[in-house]
Amino acid sequence: MNEEQRKQQQGEWTSQDASSKNDKNSSKDYSKYFDFSKAQMEEDSNGKQYMKIGGRSILINEQPDYKKGKRRGKEDVEVHYNFSIPSEMQGIGAGKNYLIRTYGCQMNYHDTENMSGILEEMGFSETDKAEDADVIFLNTCAIRENAENKVFGEIGNLKTLKREKPELILGVCGCMSQEESVVNRIMQKHQHIDLIFGTHNIHRVPHLLKDAIQGKEMVIEVWSKEGDVVENMPRKRAGKTQAWVNIMYGCDKFCTYCIVPYTRGKERSRLPEDIIAEVRDLARQGYKEITLLGQNVNAYGKDLDREYGLGHLMDELHKIDIPRIRFTTSHPRDFDDHLVEVLSQGGNLVEHIHLPVQSGNNAVLKLMARKYTREQYVELARKIKEAMPHASFTTDLIVGFPNETEEQFQDTLSLVKEMDYDSAFTYIYSPRDGTPAAKMKDNVPMDVKKDRLARLNKVVNEISARRNKELQGQIVEVLVEGESKKNPDILSGRTRTNKLVNFRGPKSCIGEIVYTKITEAKTWTLDGEMVEMAEVNK
Ligand code: SAM
Ligand code: SF4
Fold first, then answer.
1. What is the DSSP letter of 438?
2. Which one of 193, 274, 461, 474 is least enclosed by Cβ atoms within 10 Å?
3. Is the peptide bond before 495 cis (omega within 30 degrees of 0)?
4. Band of the pLDDT at 534, cuts 50, 70, 90?
5. pLDDT at position 15, please?
6. Torsion sign (Cα): 227, 69, 142, 450
7. Tens-place pLDDT, residues 42-63
8. CB count, 10 Å around CB of 407?
9. Where are the alpha helices (DSSP H) in 294-422?
């Protein structure tokens, strides 16, 4: 699936995190950004550390440190319920506007909801025009190099605006801020940036923003050791129908290609009672769909001091009066039988399973440190399909992992056919600084990787088209999200199986669940005609 197709299939959240069709074999050399020989360190009377470099003074509260980010301590994670914005910071944003540009996955979009909530409590109003903004944050993604290139392009573009409006505060946050090389590069080459903070200290935004507004220095505060769980941050949700609910943070899997365990820290689960209370509250507010979020949701509960996993949580959420509950992303290794059994109850637990496999070849899976074999994956999928016969299955696939042979790639193609996936996110492997795979010698040329991606996409698309065709003539339940992006006269929404349906209907249906008859199946979307409103809305 390429970027455009993904946009159609997945909606807005993936639109900025394209497939790797533009990824180059990484030739980037960040070593030049580590030359701080001209930098001078100073300490003020309060013990605050400043770096003077290239004419800019930088207040360094804390810089990213990969070694610390990799460490997994045994300390208990504390849950804090006492977030508040200090009174002297509450009016800071009065009469001012903010804009947050978000890149990457749902986790980032959800973090943006929290940052928006905090900024609005400080008095700022949202704008979608950079020229009108007094504060601009780039909430970044580090998963592949092309995602990072986009952000550096945007940082460059904002330089002119900053020159015209020097009081504008430009902040970089999200996963890229957790990378040492990125922060060093910004300190040296992009001195028009005012603030850098990471994924673990979003609750510190009021303090950091105050420092950035009141001081002249660039402010850097990136925590490498993950923070605790902060429960009651203000939040401005992007929609009124569907909501994201974080159930856990971080990842301990350390797949050899992946940057996430370094940028998002160790696995920390929220307490079930906090999650259940949040979902109940969303149900009361009239939300129709909840997506539970985590990098590896199947590890939910492992760090809690009780026998409680995702299966237990889903079982409790099943009893709440809300029409749909999804979760993402699953790691096959932690998907246990109890969860399969709970999901088989159906009801508001919808029948869509996103189960990233990455490769169909056991040797590659081993090098990726995925900790399952193709056979174990297929067996798990068989169990899930048996328990949920109408479930749609989607996955993530990486081609061109270092030294992947044609035969190993063929195993991925054969697995895709065997699994008969409804759709898949497909990527060219992108080396990430600091990960084990980035140190592996790679003998696969980029044109071979691109060719494999094209061949893989062809197979994935043929299967998607056929799977969609099977729905032609059927009546499906659709949660209406809004007007179609291409044509405001058409509405679009999603089936329980997460397929996008376009149909004509009254605007009053937006946010409601309706039944539509599928009239035409396309590769990534379905066309339908509305049959009736669902009982749940009446
Ligand atoms: N936690 C999820 C899992 O393990 O399935 C995935 C989260 S990651 C944000 C989403 C997808 O990005 C992964 O499943 C993988 O296919 C892809 N990905 C991660 N690192 C990558 C890399 N270095 N190069 C290419 N694709 C990558
Ligand atoms: Fe990355 Fe997912 Fe592996 Fe964690 S489980 S390291 S997020 S690919």
1. G
2. 474
3. no
4. low
5. 26
6. negative
7. 888 888 888 888 778 888 888 8
8. 9
9. 310-317, 337-343, 362-367, 374-387, 406-419
Angle at 337 between CA 332 and CA 468, to 5 degrees: 60
Q: Running DSSP on this structure, what letter comes out for residue 347?
A: T
In testing the pocket of ligand 1, which one of 176, 258, 263 has its CB within 8 Å of the most ligand atoms?
258
| C-alpha of residue 191 to centroid of ligand 2, in Å | 32
CA proximity to 226, closest of 119, 51, 69:
69
The residue to which tokens 């009469």 are assigned? 95
The owner of tokens 């492997």 is: 429
Q: What is the pLDDT of residue 416?
A: 98
User: pLDDT, tens digit, for every residue of 237-262?
Assistant: 999 999 999 999 999 999 999 999 99
Ligand 2: residues with CB < 6 A are 251, 253-255, 258, 260-261, 295-296, 331
Tokens of 372: 């399952």
Handedness of CA 445, 450, 454, 459 (dihedral sign): positive
- CA nearest 301: which of 269, 274, 328? 269
124's tokens: 């700022």
Helix (H, G, I), strand (E, B) or coil at 147: helix
pLDDT tens track for 301-358: 999 989 999 999 999 999 999 999 999 999 999 999 999 999 999 999 999 999 999 9
Provide, rounded to the nearest whole percent, the portion of the chain with pLDDT above 70.
92
DSSP secondary structure string for all residues of 291-334? EEE-TTGGGTTTTSSSS--HHHHHHHHTTSS-SEEEEE---GGG
State how far Cα 188 lies from the chain centre: 28
